[in-house]
Amino acid sequence: MIEFKNVSKIFASKAGPLLAIDNISLFIEKNEIFGIIGESGAGKSTLLRFINALETPSEGIVEVNGTNVATLNNRELRLFKKQIGMIFQQFNLLGNKTVEENILLPLELHHYDDALDIDQILKFVGLEGKRNSYPSELSGGQKQRVGIARGLITRPKILLCDEPTSALDEITKREIVDLLTRVSETFEITILIVTHELDVVKDLCNRVAILDEGKLVDVLEVSREMNAFQSDVSYQELAREVLLNE
């Protein structure tokens, strides 16, 4: 479904070239919930942004359904991006638009033949009574539900989630994890979630890639049995212990 082939990314910085992604090869299955974890600066969001062409690799190839994203012309790229939904850490809602208007925004920008019905998606995310509310009137969890609804309204094949729970409290985080689990069960969709929160990956993902300073450290199958967190081990050791139940 999604394949990274020897992908690297170099950014220019005041200190000189910065290697943000270092020769990563990785395959993500269709309809999988796949996590990308690592500490701040590990390259997680850069790797995610390759998929919808918000970033272009300096070296290597990113393929989606066998198509090299870098070879698409402008028209092909617009059609390709219509298959991808995005959920953001800070929600990215327009304050002067209602819940309904924010959710329907993608349909104003492009035509979709198979979009979901607004009543259907509002019910799915539990916001039937908030359709005429504005973002300033919503809690953080409600704002993220709007973001999820907006990401789903177009029936995308891929849903990219960039730290979707890090701005939320523990109870609300659990609600959003449960909602994303229902998204996976209800729609035929591949979900990629970038996060540093191991409990989110533990409860949500099938597999997870661990990144460290731009390198792929490991790809793990996720065990659902929960371990206690420790503070005296490295992030990579902690990830293996929590996610593999070792």
Number of strands: 10
Over all CA atoms, what is the radius of gyration? Answer: 18 Å
Task: Decide which structural class fits the backbone.
Answer: alpha/beta
- The share of residues in helices is 25-40%
Shape: globular
- What portion of the residues fall into strands of 2 or more residues? 25-35%
Structure, described:
With 246 residues, the chain is α/β, with parallel strands linked by helices. 33% of the residues lie in helices and 25% in strands. It is built from eight helices and ten strands. The strands form two sheets. Strands 6-7-8-3-9-10 form a six-stranded mixed β-sheet, sandwiched between helices. Strands 2-1-4-5 form a four-stranded antiparallel β-sheet, covered by helices on one side. Strand 1 (2-11) and strand 2 (18-28) form a beta hairpin. Helix 3 packs parallel to helix 5 (140-152). It is globular. Residues 228-233 have low confidence and may be disordered.
Short description:
The chain is an alpha/beta fold.
List keywords for this structure.
246 residues; alpha/beta; globular; 4-stranded antiparallel β-sheet; 6-stranded mixed β-sheet; 33% helix; 25% strand
